[in-house]
Specification:
332 residues; alpha/beta; Nucleotidyltransferase, domain 5; 2 domains; 10 strands; 19% strand; binds 5'-O-[(R)-(carboxyoxy)(hydroxy)phosphoryl]adenosine; binds zinc ion
Amino acid sequence: MIILGIESSCDETAAAVVQNGTVILSSIIASQMDTHCKYGGVVPELASRMHAEAIVPVVDKAVQKAGITMEEIDGVAATRGPGLIGALLVGFSFAKAFAWARHLPLAGVNHLEAHISSLGLMDKPPAFPFIALVVSGGHTNIYHVTSPNAFELMGQTRDDAAGEAFDKVSKMLNLGYPGGPIIESLAKKMDPDKIKFPRSLLDKKSFDFSFSGLKSSVARYIHVHQIESQEDTAQVAASFQAAVIDVLTTKLMNAARFKGCKRIGISGGVSANRTFGTLLSERAGKEGIQVFAPPIDLCGDNAAMIAARGFTMISQGHTCDLNHDVFSRTRI
Ligand code: KG4
Ligand code: ZN
């Protein structure tokens, strides 16, 4: 079954063609980064307008690159939420029209479930059950995933998402947007333990996160120590990153132990952080727990993960009709 996937929940207009939920025939991503980075974050109104301009050419390109004709598409999957309403509306309305015109089934995909499904696109995906972390600019959620359709939410952030903390600290250090990749590369040569930033909510009984205290602590440090040199900036970046990674890793290990689970999968933009992946693998390996992370181009927002999730939904008859609408917030 060939599924056309469409993603437009934030600042990427993406389309992909995926066969049987596992083989990526094409995956096109039109990023709006250059526009939004001038403002230090995503401007919703601009995002919607740019999605509207990009959607048709991006879908055309995905179909062309896949080497198929429109007639060969068996189903359409588009992100229904969570995300920016105006942005979601562009991709989901396009998908509705496409599916209606061609009499195809339509899956309205939950973006968070899709990030977890990106693990299914790996050469060697994790077997069920596994602990999954979705860690991005908007979310930091831990799930116990027992089947392709069973996502038990174990914990989530009570304030900022981990990616949001990376972006805000980057802004404080005048490093630009998005902050994650810049902070990761600056941190590489520094001693992560030199500044001891706080680790929040490490209580074993809670799987929730909190990153706003860490963010304030970094702001205070920058103010008091008047961080200006490149080396001092890199030191703050390294110690901040270490605090985030420490919390994410500790919580994931606690969750795996609590569920007696031997597999952990990470997904979402922050999972592109290879320092995080490496440290997590080291700690998990000591307890015989295997760590799975998608290739970097599937960590951030993409449409291949939407098509992969849509394939499962359509195969099981979980489809949408023209009355279904997008949603900005969710709990899965
Ligand atoms: O999944 P994503 O592309 O979009 C959302 O759904 O939010 O995630 C974007 C987030 C941004 O906050 C960005 O700073 C972060 O992922 N990010 C990283 C890295 N690459 C992207 N954070 C830490 N280290 C990275 N290498
Ligand atoms: Zn995302």
